[in-house]
Design a protein that fits this description.
By secondary structure, this protein is mainly beta. The chain contains two helices and five strands. The protein has a single domain, classed as Chorismate lyase.
Length: about 110
């Protein structure tokens, strides 16, 4: 599933979200229905608590596809932060995998789990 994350009406991140179907069979199918606080939704609707998140960070230049999704000009040479993340429960079972690609010029990545 592909989600666009916005700040002040500007797309700043494109997030690809996947999950193992057996863990959450009714995961929302439409990007517009995906809650911003996915971990909270998993806990409230399925009793699934995220215990660990493993992230791999890398930077790269935006592809033409990225530029379209981020509503940027085709000739833009923007850097993106790629975040490959797998969120697991206390038994180390993967619950959610995400791959955001975020603009870095005016924003930073903060990961906080409570």
């Amino acid at each position: 599933m592909l989600c666009q994350r916005m700040i002040e009406s500007r797309v700043v991140m494109v997030d690809r979200v996947t999950r193992p179907p057996a863990n959450v069979p009714d995961f929302l199918a439409q990007a517009a229905e995906v809650p911003v606080l996915v971990f909270k939704w998993l806990l409230e609707h399925h009793g699934l608590r995220i215990a660990a998140v493993r992230e791999r960070l890398a930077t790269r230049l935006a592809t033409p596809g990225d530029l379209r999704l981020l509503n940027l000009p085709e000739d833009d040479v923007g850097a993106l932060l790629d975040i490959d993340a797998v969120s697991c429960d206390s038994m180390n079972r993967p619950l959610v995998a995400t791959r955001p690609a975020a603009l870095t010029e005016d924003h930073c990545h903060i990961n906080e789990i409570r």
